[in-house]
Design brief:
By secondary structure, this protein is mainly beta. The chain has helices spanning 17-23, 28-31, 169-172, 284-288, and strands at residues 2-14, 35-36, 52-56, 61-65, 80-88, 96-107, 114-115, 119-125, 133-136, 139-140, 148-152, 158-160, 166-167, 178-180, 186-189, 200-209, 219-229, 237-239, 243-245, 257-260, 262-264, 273-278, 289-291, 297-300, 313-319, 327-333. Strands 8, 11, 12, 13, 16 and 17 form a 6-stranded mixed β-sheet that branches. A 4-stranded antiparallel β-sheet has the order 1-6-5-2. The protein has a 4-stranded mixed β-sheet with strand order 19-26-25-22.
């Protein structure tokens, strides 16, 4: 909104004897008789030429504010408007003089900031480094003296896991995954991301005009939905534990199953494969057994002779098919 400032200039555009008299007076508002001008409109005008009106009495005339609010936007954001004024004396032969009145419009900070895009969405890798930029928000304010400040409303952060189930963003620390630069509007990674904790995060962005006058609080919000894409950062995990005990008798037939191992992977779409490995210098186990790489079933490959060796130990390695490929191992022993 704009307010009418004091009269800044009065310029004649028609020479007459009355104008010569006006030039000798101290101020226009105290001396102009019978100032004439179009009455103030009752509806919003298309131009600012009728932005004010004159009232007069026998001795004084004054400029008054019109009945509608002045907006500098109506004049193409010009800082002044111009109005023609005529003055007629009371002589036997009335004479009329004319002048242009220039009214300076002073700015009042009363416009709300606005986001160019109030709803946005994006996808980032869950291994994006802390401090990396995600995207930039831009807000505008038509007031000349506006000062915009951005922030994230953490208490409004929403989070969902890969199954679409809502999780507690604050309890899981998801509300601190992202933040925004208060001056530039750049959204960036504020802490280590974990897709397995939250795959979709909804962040509320706030912009405020710190120089707001009327109303004193001027702000706008935007919604940013961020989806985390998977990165292979979890190795397979053996269940229920990474240690197995196997009881094998000397008379067990070849290809007989002695146990079955299982493993899971928190990363999306991982296929786990199993293989055997030697434990330290003990090669009896890895030479005496086979494992199905898909099912994890361990079978006897060759007969055991406990008169030669009474115990065995070997490892089972579980590998995923991610990039980079990750693995973990479990221990199988006869005496553990």
């Amino acid at each position: 909104m704009s307010t009418i400032m004091p009269l800044c200039s009065v310029q004649p555009f028609m020479p007459c004897r009355l104008w010569k008299t006006l030039l000798k007076t101290p101020t226009l508002s105290q001396s102009l008789p019978r100032m004439a001008m179009a009455p103030a409109p009752t509806t919003t005008p298309s131009t600012a030429s009728t932005a004010a009106r004159w009232t007069s009495s026998e001795s004084t005339s004054r400029l008054e504010r019109s009945s509608w609010r002045l907006e500098r936007d109506w004049t193409g954001r010009k800082k002044s408007v111009h109005s023609p004024v005529s003055a007629t004396d009371r002589g036997n032969r009335p004479l009329t003089g004319y002048c242009n009145v220039t009214i300076t419009l002073g700015n009042v900070n009363d416009e709300m900031p606005q986001f160019s895009e109030a709803v946005r969405s994006t996808t980032v890798r869950e291994n994006l480094a802390v401090g990396s930029s995600v995207l930039t928000y831009t807000a505008t304010d038509s007031d000349d003296d506006s000062s915009l400040r951005y922030s994230c409303l953490r208490n409004l952060t929403l989070a969902y896991d890969e199954r679409g189930r809502k999780i507690d963003a604050a309890a899981k620390g998801v509300d601190r995954y992202f933040d925004i630069n208060s001056t530039s509007g750049i959204v960036y990674v504020a802490s280590v991301l974990d897709r397995e904790t939250a795959e979709r995060i909804v962040v509320t962005i706030l912009v405020e005009d710190t120089k707001a006058v009327q109303p004193p609080q001027q702000s706008a919000t935007a919604i940013l939905t961020i989806t985390l894409s998977d990165y292979n950062d979890n190795a397979p995990t053996f269940i229920p534990s990474s240690q197995y005990r196997a009881n094998v008798s000397e008379g067990l037939a070849l290809d007989s199953a002695i146990l079955r191992v299982e493993a899971t992977d928190a990363d999306r779409g991982q296929e786990i494969r199993f293989e055997l490995a030697s434990a330290s210098q003990d090669t009896l186990g890895v030479n005496s057994f086979n494992i199905d790489s898909s099912t994890g079933v361990v079978t006897l490959k060759q007969k055991l002779d406990f008169e030669v060796k009474t115990s065995f130990t070997f490892l089972i390695v579980a590998k995923d098919n991610g990039s980079p490929q990750l693995s973990s191992s479990a221990t199988v022993c006869s005496e553990c």
